[in-house]
Specification:
two-stranded antiparallel sheet; wza like fold; 2 domains; single chain; alpha+beta
Length: about 150
């Protein structure tokens, strides 16, 4: 029964995408190793999913070809907006990177002729998984080690 819970938990973490487990504690009374488990490192790159939706706290790299003054790395604020020169505040949360690039391209046409915009999700901070409850033992999976 305990092994099936561990497998379900591991499957849920893998399905959730890049995750940071903030606190998981071993609760085995027969072991003196009841210490907090180290956090799982967060992935610095976006998944290869073209339907990934940008969320608050994500970090984006906005590149406008041949326009270094407009290109920059920006965090998505808690209200879901980013700030860019010429455009001020732009809604980003809930859009895919391609949708945001298209929206920025249209907005920049007022200022730049034929802008080519690329949006890259540099850090995913909007998706976190918390493990709460009893963990009998921590196992390392071969798929996660390098």
């Amino acid at each position: 029964m305990k092994h099936s819970r561990l497998l379900i938990l591991a499957g849920a973490i893998l399905l959730a995408g890049p995750a940071t487990v903030l606190h998981a504690q071993a609760q085995n009374p027969t072991s003196d190793a009841a210490k907090p488990v180290a956090p799982i490192a967060s992935s610095p790159v976006a998944p290869n999913d073209p339907d990934y939706k940008i969320g608050p706290q994500d970090v984006l790299t906005i590149t406008v070809w041949k326009e270094p003054d407009v290109s920059r790395e920006v965090p998505v604020r808690p209200d879901g907006k980013i700030s860019l020169p010429l455009l001020n505040d732009v809604d980003a949360a809930g859009l895919t990177p391609m949708q945001l690039a298209s929206s920025l391209t249209e907005s920049l046409k007022k200022f730049i002729s034929s802008p080519q915009v690329t949006v890259i999700v540099k850090e995913i901070n909007s998706r976190r998984v918390y493990v709460i409850g009893e963990v009998v033992r921590r196992e390392r999976f071969r798929c996660c080690q390098r």
